[in-house]
Amino acid sequence: MIKWLDLKNTFRNRRFLFFTVVFPAAWYLFILTMGQDVAFAGKSTNYLLYLTAAIIGIGGNSVVTFSKKICETRGFFQLQSKTSHYGLRQWLADQLIVELLLNSTICFVLVMIGFCYQAILFTMEFLLLIFLLLILGLYLSVIGFFVGLILDGQTISALAMPLSMGASLLMAPWASFVHGSSWFLTAFTAIQKIFPGYYVYQVIQNMLNRQDVFQSLSCFVLTTLLILIPVALLSVRRLKRI
Questions:
Q1: Please, are residues 238 and 146 in contact by the beta-carbon 8 Å criterion?
Q2: What transmembrane ranges does the database entry give (predicted)?
């Protein structure tokens, strides 16, 4: 029941609909209308374009919308945990399930757009891409949960755009769009390698080129855990103090 109410309230949120569904869908649609087989660096970018649009939507949802919701509801669920059997751990688990469903909705909308433009083929590589995106969404949701615990609603609202853009910039493989190299691009890519989003496209690209994916997949798992575990522990510690 709680998960259903959360989903219902989120879909009524105009900010969620615009910034995490309409905006990435419009961006993806605009790029596709420029040409189905647009290529950067001589390679088709159908997967890259889908990945970028999905990260824009998932980043905005998991980091900004989710953190704002956690900030607004944490007091109610704290009280409920003290007066019922519904504990804070169950609250976190339910919230992550809701986020998984919301991120799946974002991916589905983008899939429908790509399918209509014949830019997407349901191959093993594409299914793996969606799976990794949903894992990345859970990773960002845990970060969003922590942000919602440590910041107040006004601060989150003020930082909404920087948080959303920051998540998208750090996760999307922007270097794949750019010809040549520069010191800024090299430095920015080095920073991106700290985060798991960078390796999602690397895994898919290796599969398309029939190359070994073990290294890129291992880096994805490692970078996810290196940030996810400390943030999760800090969230639990913060919950005990509330």
A1: yes
A2: 16-35, 47-66, 96-120, 126-151, 158-177, 213-236
pLDDT digits (tens, 9 = 90+) for 46-58: 888 899 899 999 9
Tokens of 14: 């105009």
Q: Residue 104 and residue 45: Cα distance in Å, rounded?
A: 22
Cβ proximity of 54 and 140 under 8 Å: no
What tokens appear for 163 in the block?
A: 């948080």
Cross-strand pairs, 101: none
d(CA 55, CA 189): 16
**What's the CA angle centered on 147, arms 70 and 201, to 5 degrees?**
105
Share of the chain above pLDDT 90, in %: 29
Rounded distance between C-alpha atoms, residue 201 and residue 198, angstroms: 7
Q: End-to-end CA distance of the chain: give it in Å, rounded.
A: 25
Each residue of 95-125: pLDDT tens digit?
A: 889 999 999 999 999 999 998 888 888 888 8
* SS3 of the chain: CHHHHHHHHHHCCHHHHHHHHHHHHHHHHHHHHCCCCCEECCEECHHHHHHHHHHHHHHHHHHHHHHHHHHHHHHHHHHHHHHCCCCHHHHHHHHHHHHHHHHHHHHHHHHHHHHHCCCCCCCHHHHHHHHHHHHHHHHHHHHHHHHHHHCCHHHHHHCHHHHHHHHHHHHCCHHHHCCCCCHHHHHHHHHHCCCCHHHHHHHHHHHHCCCCCHHHHHHHHHHHHHHHHHHHHHHHHHHHHC
For the full predicted model, state whether its pTM sits above 0.85.
Answer: yes
